[in-house]
Protein: 5'-nucleotidase
Organism: Rhodococcus artemisiae
Amino acid sequence: MKALIVNDDGIDSPGLASLARVAVDAGLDVSVAAPHLEHSGASASLSALQEDGTLSMSRRTFPDLPELEVFSVECSPALISFLAAEGVFGRPPDIVLSGINLGPNTGHAILHSGTVGAALTAASHGARAVALSLNGTAPSLWDTAESVASRAVRWAAVHAPPGQVLNVNIPDISLTELRGLRTAPLAEFGAVQAEIGEMEEDGLETRSVPVTFRSVVIDETRESDAALLHHGWATATMLTMPFEVSGIDLSALTFST
């Protein structure tokens, strides 16, 4: 099974190499392509850095996986998934593994995640897809992350429906502290929430709006992905790509000429 490893933290993120090791150990035929810089919050944007519409990429190597084909690409993670589906990195992947992200991707805020966006883009082209995130911006317990990721990747390679995304969040705790892996609904919010201040005038033609991000207080009355993650569980949630909504009466909107 052909697998593409991608992320939104960039080619030098430790989570990328960690996920590549997991995929190789699972017996997958692995290629790696990741943004040359961090693209957190890129969602499923298809953006590149070249004004003339061309993409720049360069070959890289992982010291402990020298046999892998690794590309550093100057574009968003979702565009990398799109390119992979078109055969830019060889045979289109059967499964796309996105991560392991530094920081959780929980709740409805996954809409903005470049990690999840890359996986959803792959799913929209008919591939299996897994998005994996670790609950910490400076995580240290990679054994736990790789153990849970291995279980998720091996399950997804056999059981995940093509065209859908398995979203996995992993607590940054030791394996002995890990309570297990549970399915979970999305929390109402994500791990952080934006606070927008008053618009300020910086001059005759310029305005500025202060934007800050703070951690969300977790609603522990509901067993959401965020709440379970907070209490030492790894979580798994199946996602689907955007689709039309049926059952809405649009007759007052439509017309013909």
About this structure: The first helix runs from residue 14 to 25. The chain has five helices and 13 strands.
